[in-house]
Predict the structure.
Amino acid sequence: MRVLLVSHAMVTRSNHRLAEELSAYPDVQLEVLTSPWWDEESRHVAQEKTADPHYRIRIGKLGYFGQPKPNLFFFRRGLARALNEVHPDIIDFYEEPFSMVMGQLLPLRRLFAPRARLMFYSAQNINKRYPPPFNLFEQAAFRAADYANVCASEVGAVLRRKGYRKPLKLIPLAADDTVFKPLPEARNELRAELAIAPQQRVLGYLGRLSAEKGVQDMVAALPLLPADVRLLIVGGGEREPLEQQARTLGVAERLIFTGAVNRLDAPRYLNAMDVLVVPSHTTPSWKEQFGRIIVEAFLCGVPVLGSDSGAIPEVVSDSGLIFPEGDVAALAAAASRLLEQPSLAADLSRHALIRARAEFTWPQVAAARYHIYEELMQTKL
């Protein structure tokens, strides 16, 4: 089967693990169309992989409808040519159904690949009404698509409420268990580099610094925790409000900011933490859609404490602790349980590591996608 996988996320080498796994299936002839660059977690990322012996990588030229935002991009060059040259049996379109690039794909598919089966991806877990032309793209995608892939159950419910009636499957996001793993030596080295004393305990956050991510709740919880607890904040974004909050609360010396780090360095920082906190807040326009960092922490053997925003409780499940979003006292109490009860933290970490290896690694996720391909190839055109 000839598969054209279209995904702006393939700008990073780590996300190419999906293509590497899919191309290992002997009956899959895979080509990938991706972008030359992307803004990823407050970092500008240039394309990190341009060739592979087992599948072809096509790098298109991007344009934007107005502002450079994820769902406003389209391919100035590359999409029509890929469809015309690949003659795909399956178009695996790893983009939202309401996106500008979906609006571009649909007429090009009719022109260059009318017999190709189409699957789209969605992570949108809020039932939004989009203005024209995006609402038209969405409904057209629902009619044209043969399958939908969602990253959390709430996303599927939103698609159904909006009128999507075709097959749908939940496939979680994945992490690389050869990269994200327990690293005791790296833990000790990094804590020494960051001047974290051996007896000090570390609550950590890794991600974008913005109000909806809830890091301000971690700062607010710090006065409620013992004086030896440090807060390790890894990521770029709105740092100054957090620093001002910490000064006001008298805990500034207990915060450690690293700025944005390369994704390849993320395992070192996760391993330096005693607990990873994912304190996201729900807003009218956003709530946590998955939280890949949760899975990455699981694979590193780090206990996870998450708010109940969006998909976090589903991803964490029985492998960590959950607190009501925005509830600082509950966050502090749950953090104390994990810090003061090493046996609880160890039990959760062991369970999380086993579960993550079974459900959230690239081979498992690719296998689920391949089974959809098989199903699509059996459908009559």
Q: What stands out?
A: The first helix runs from residue 16 to 23.
